[in-house]
Amino acid sequence: MPVSGLGEYDDQNVFARILSGEIPCRRVFEDDWALAFHDIAPQAPVHVLVIPKARYVSMADFTARGSAGEIAGFFRAVGAVARQLELETPGYRILANMGPDSGQEVPHFHVHIFGGKPLGPMLAR
Ligand code: AMP
Fold first, then answer.
1. 106 CB within 6 A, ligand 1
2. Which residue from 38, 49, 95, 123 has the fewest beta carbons nearer than 10 Å?
3. Count of domains for the chain
4. Tens digits of per-residue pLDDT, 93-109?
5. Residue 94, helix vs strand vs coil
6. Closest Cα partner for 29 from 118, 123, 111?
7. CATH number, residue 37
């Protein structure tokens, strides 16, 4: 059972359909734990999404139900993606929206990686 307020996992959500190959993506990285692809509506020169391969609706769900291997594998993948994108020297930002106050739109856990320019204040005011 998911633990967040987002409800049961929806197998028709857009990231599930990307994982199944039903919807294309601009893939940048894939391993046993994660898939990374360019955001369709980038908000920075580099804007990549990293998603776990298994069915988790949110950060809350992933960190409650994910195994230690899944969680470690996923966050290592986030770091590997940023490294592959050559963002470590200039720096980058990661962000995960969780639930209504965050504006989370897609109910499959994902981490945004932003980079490619100085990113300004941490939150929009
Ligand atoms: P969030 O608001 O954190 O749930 O972010 C969802 C993100 O998914 C947004 O930045 C969207 O632009 C992005 N997105 C939605 N559909 C697609 C798609 N088909 N391919 C790539 N990114 C997408």
1. yes
2. 123
3. 1
4. 999 999 999 999 999 99
5. strand
6. 111
7. 3.30.428.10
